[in-house]
Amino acid sequence: MIEGIDWNDMWRRKVEASSWENKHENWIEFWDRRAEGYDSRVKSNRERQIEAVLGLNIESEDSVLDVGAGPGTFSIPIARKARLVTAVEPSRGMISCLCRNAREEGLENIVPIEKLWEDVRPIQDVAEHDVVIASYSLGMKDIRGALEKMDLLAKRWVYLFHFAGDASAIYRDLWYEAHHEEYRSGPDYIYLINVLHQMGIYANVEVSSEEQIQRFSDLDEAASHWSENLDAPPEAEKAIRDHLSSMLERDGDDLVQREMMRRVKIWWRPDTREAGEI
């Protein structure tokens, strides 16, 4: 860590300069629109979520707080393992998907709370939980305030999942095709580590690289997926389609997209404020 740098402010400025932040004024409305499509993609990659959950120190009698739960990406597999899951999620569309997924799985131990994490009042709105997780949901501008709240409400562990490095080449190229501007990503994990360090938290960090594979039945499905994912204007769909046609691989009846992704897991014990072993 470099002394004298306000890493919380650095995080905020990086968020505010990012392409997505400049494109959207109402994030809740955006995720409401994307909820169903996002839920479908999560279900197609269920094995990765299950593998991630298996790596968490969660016991059968634990309560787990999931910050930015989405359609239940982590809440659903965690609820099969824990006594209680409280899912904080501001998007009504995402909560609708989460509740439907819980019903389909026969799970009755998930309690949804429709709130921004920034608006949650500790103890008043959400009690302490044994484990707190935030999985790819750290879009808060005041990240120190968000992390302090997670640390306060966790009895045993806090787990964060975030990205390492810049956006993939595929994402950058398709963003340019959609919006004719260079893609500016949000802050990666190193900002989190430095914010935590300034909070007196010496967290465990695990960075991994994995090949992410996405399958499409045809080019129409691929173009529709990416147009929605990038919130592209209708006139950009042809450029996106043309770019995809040159990069997707044929695998039997499917078109396949392959890219390497770097992800990071960060975790610590709030009671000791130092790195702990699982």
Concise synopsis of the structure shown:
With 278 residues, the chain is of the alpha/beta class. It has helices at 7-17, 19-23, 27-44, 46-54, 75-79, 92-105, 143-153, 169-179, 189-198, 219-229, 237-247, and strands at residues 63-67, 84-88, 110-113, 129-135, 154-163, 204-216, 249-251, 254-268.
List key phrases describing it.
11 helices, 8 strands, Rossmann fold, 42% helix
Cα-based radius of gyration, to the nearest Å: 19 Å
Helices and strands, in order, run as HHHHEHEHEEHEHHEHHEE
How does the helix and strand content classify structurally?
A: alpha/beta
User: What's the shape?
Assistant: globular
Specify the CATH homologous superfamily: Vaccinia Virus protein VP39
Kindly report the CATH topology. Answer: Rossmann fold
What number of structural domains do the residues give? 1
As residue ranges, the low-confidence spans are none
Report the sheet-strand fraction.
Answer: 15-25%
- Which bin fits the share of residues in helices? 40-55%
Q: How many strand segments?
A: 8
Distance between the termini: 25 Å
| CATH class descriptor | Alpha Beta
Structure annotation, total helices = 11
Task: Write the CATH architecture name.
Answer: 3-Layer(aba) Sandwich
Mean pLDDT: 90
Q: Biggest sheet, open or closed, and with what strands and sense?
A: 8 strands, mixed
3D structure, described in words:
This protein is α/β, with parallel strands linked by helices and 278 residues long. It has helices at 7-17, 19-23, 27-44, 46-54, 75-79, 92-105, 143-153, 169-179, 189-198, 219-229, 237-247; strands at 63-67, 84-88, 110-113, 129-135, 154-163, 204-216, 249-251, 254-268. Strand 2, helix 6 and strand 3 form a beta-alpha-beta unit. Helix 8 (169-179) runs antiparallel to helix 11.
